[in-house]
Amino acid sequence: MILAFVEHADGQLDRLSAESLALARRLGAAVKTGVEAVAIGGESLAAAVGRHGADVLHLAQLDDGDAYVPDAWAAAVGDRIGALGPEAVVAPGSVRGLEVLAVVAARLGLPLAANCIDVHPGDPWSVTRQRWAGSLLEEATLEGPVKLLSAAPHAFPADEMVAGATDARIEPFAPTIGERERRVRVARRLAPETGGVSLTDARVVVGGGRGVGSAEGFAMIEELAGLLGGAVGVSRAVTSAGWRPHTEQVGQTGARIAPDLYIACGISGAIQHIVGCKAAKTILAINTDPDAPIMAQADYAVIGDLREVVPAIAAALRRS
Amino acid sequence: MEILVAIKRVPATGGRIVLTADERAIDTRHLGFTVSPHEECAVEEAVRIVEAGGGSVTAVTLGPEVATEQLRDAMAIGADRAVLLETDGREWDPMETAAAIVDAVQAQAAAGTPYDLLLFGNEAADTGDYQVPIRVAVALDLPWVTGVKALELRDGVAVARREAVGGGWEEFELPLPAVVAVKEGINLPRYPSLPGRLRANKKPIDRVAPTARPSGPTMSRLRLPREEAHEVEILGRGADAAPRVVEVMRTLGVVRS
After folding, report:
1. pLDDT tens across A162-178, in order?
2. A139 CB-near residues (< 8 Å, 6+ apart)
């Protein structure tokens, strides 16, 4: 059996969990075994996990309800591994999915392959996983009596359903949770700051890199973003120089964006930046160097100094 | 406050990755090396905590002799000493890396000055295994938190804040000693000053031979993701290109009317 750890929000199956069920289903087919799911709370998920191919939904009943208590969640998953003996456990490529699985792996003393995009059961199992946030792929073998894997975000389809599927059968269980598993928990939640177009939701992002030259230089980037109702994004060179706050950083250690249009101004296109912006539908690069790596990613380009090009575009937009 | 901060030497890859002929490593002949970004911030955070409240910072890395460059970088911005868990350059998997760090932490405790705080980067820039800090915490039975973007220490408690799923923040309170994995953005790391660099050269580096216990995942080869063939359309040069750019924006439907 392949066991999939799934998460939910407001009673709905979370998207990355649906993706990890798609990986679990592929493994189930390859090993000729079934797929079952394990969740903390979430009776309402039976239909959704059934449609995504799980026959059984193991529901942990924890005293903390569905509050996030990571070691307790890991203990619950570990409890089902002990009781059910799955061939593999698959987690979503989310913050919680990754850390719950890491605790499980540490407690069982088993290896864990994070962010897999392809998995082939065999002897041994082989996986393809992301390095450098997906700029490089690693092919590796994975040992252990239970294979522990997480699915890389967006590597597997979230909308793949099993035709004629029925609701998963709910099997509640009550794992034993000690006080030590309750030491770490969310003590309080704070509301998001409001105001402005958020970088990850914006339809247009105007990005500025080292080529902008200074903190003051960003006035023209902001102006263009404002005219297009978009947000400002920056490369790591810019935040490291202290020109802009880290919240605006796009890339491996910043935000992953997927706007309709990304305008990369004075950004050379280091791989760490590209992984953050390559999901943009269209990329327009403005750069003095026609051979900059960003050109290999761009759909359109203007060759020139952004300090001339950006104000000219702003002026043309105001005229139009 | 005794703080251990774990760092990793990674290549500064730039615009594209080139692999070695055997496809088992990045060709680094023309590359510089750096401390993995989240970990640069972990060092800065450790130094700020000690500057504010006293104590000392030890930087640790697992790697070959050349990784002392990154330990010197950490000491140049204020770490007091360093430990090199010296390898022959083989890539260690996350389980054995964590076990080697655990051994170093336990050795320090046995020597009478246990660490109060173990700081890590959230994940290494290169291998992205997302598990070493948690494995260390579980082995030492310490409370832990990852993804931390704000950290405050008060009365033996670490108050750590991270971005919550769906927006906003979630805050954890951990009794010390604890394991905290931070993300870039928690602070803006300082640049090392020249006197800082000179001082770093005089600070001690302990060399320890860690115990190898490979357990996987075991890398067989690396490869670059397939890129679709991509044609870039040059819209023009300089300011004269502006009307064409606006035309394209209209076609894309992103110009507000």
Report:
1. 888 899 999 999 999 99
2. A126, A127, A128, B219, B220, B221, B222, B223
